[in-house]
Amino acid sequence: MVRNYKRTTNQQSWSKDSMAYAIRDVRNGTLKLKAASLKYQIPATTLYRRVKSGKNVIEASNKSLGRFKSTFTYDQEKELAEFILEMESRLFGLSFKELRSLAYQYAIKNKIPNSFNHNTKLAGRDWVYKFLERQKNISLRLQEKTSAARASAFNPTNVGNFFNLLGSLFDTFHFPASRIFNCDETGISSVPNKPTKIFSLKGKKQIGCLSSAERGSLVSVEVCFSGAGTYVPPLLIFPRVRRNPAFENGLPPESIVHCHQSGWMQMDIFCDVWFPHFLKYARSSEESPVLLILDGHATHTKNLNLIEKAKANHVHKLVLPPHCSHRMQPLDVSFMYPLNTYYEQETRIWLRNNPGKVITLYEIGQLFGRAYQRAATLQTACNGFKNTGIYPYNPNIFPEDLFKPSETTNREEQHSEANRNAFTNSEANGTISPRAGCSKERTPSPQVFSHEANNHWTPQDLLPLPRAGPRKDSVRGKRKGKIMILTSTPNMEEIKLQIQGRLVRGGRVGHAVPVILKYLVSVEIRK
Known about the structure:
Layout: H1 16-28, H2 33-40, H3 44-51, H4 57-62, H5 74-89, H6 96-109, H7 125-134, H8 148-153, H9 156-173, E1 180-189, E2 218-226, E3 231-238, E4 256-259, H10 267-282, E5 290-294, H11 298-301, H12 304-312, E6 315-319, H13 325-328, H14 330-353, H15 361-375, H16 378-387, H17 417-420, H18 422-428, E7 431-432, H19 451-454, H20 459-462, E8 483-484, H21 489-505, H22 513-526
Parallel strand pairs: 1-5, 3-4, 5-6
Antiparallel strand pairs: 1-2, 2-3, 7-8
Helix pairs in contact: 1-2, 10-12, 14-15, 14-16
Subcellular location: Nucleus
Keywords: DNA-binding, Nucleus
Domain HTH CENPB-type: 64-141
């Protein structure tokens, strides 16, 4: 087959869509045969043969001229297309060569006459191109990496447990949009990770762009906004020991700057620097409490001082399911991407206007300030909460196809008796384990091969859907993240006992030790 064949006659100059419409109108009695022939510019004899063929509209309109026939029927190609989309939805999409191999095996196993290459056992490249022309909803795309933890953790059980806790908070406190906040950290580097596309000479092998260094200096930024579009001025943590007033140049009004030698968020910084800053703008009270939604990072969930301050100031903290922030955290869904895009654009403009200079920590403030003011819009904040189903409250916001990657690891665990009772005990504490509450209805049943019943091999028979084996109890007893209301009394006591036990055993808590010791001393003094 010639890939770029040029027609030499006017035969079959009508389109397949026109033929389909004409066949449908004649069979439905909407138009007579001659009227449909004139309307759609199709020869009457050709239309008559296809109307009387007895085939469905799609098969009748796809029939081509000449002695070469399609390898697969319309229904067979539809079966292949559905399997391709099913594999892609489970994050195991087929490559170009894998599709050629699958098509060859599908034809051989079902004894379909074909002209495929029997030496390489592959379908032709031209067949793939024509298949894509017929299947308009399938195209060759570049895939994005998704971690196994995110693929397995974002499942109906975790999402349902989170919305159950969120719904109980709404029923109790009736939070309006202005009293619901979300906070998260992000990193701003002097060398942006993802440059934008530019115009260049076609065929050139490598396209370069100017950057300040091979690896840039990272500045952590704490961002927070509400469901009504109110933004709390950000906190920036510079990787320095001493603070320099030049770091504040160009920052958004009332932003705060802090320094730490690592440049990362620490427990004491989050508790003693950012949280009082947050309370200044949230203005929570007993009559008007606040809901703060955050991820399960240790600076948020293992900080006892922070949890006590939050409870004393009527701030209810709800933890997102682990490894689900890419779908369920408003900041990740709507704000972080435009912020990073605008920041990259500002760095490119700065380098163009300052030839021979590089971006240092002293320029990050003004570049970030301009990007932040462009990204921090009312619509962005409102869409973040709306698209995650947090406000307005919508537990059915996520369609079923987004949960398909988790079906690969949807397996029945070999629980001990203590683990079987974990979910019952956790409900009373305002805590839900991500693995708890998995119903047996979603346990995969053994695969039944269809070719055993009707002698027909489906694509799934040839290439079974990936399925993980049964899970065994962990020997180490690794703690898993939990969906919890941090400010509930049972959860606070549980965290306190966990940390006290680590200190008694001499275990390492890292940079959290000074904060924990300070907390324990304060508790003893109050006693």
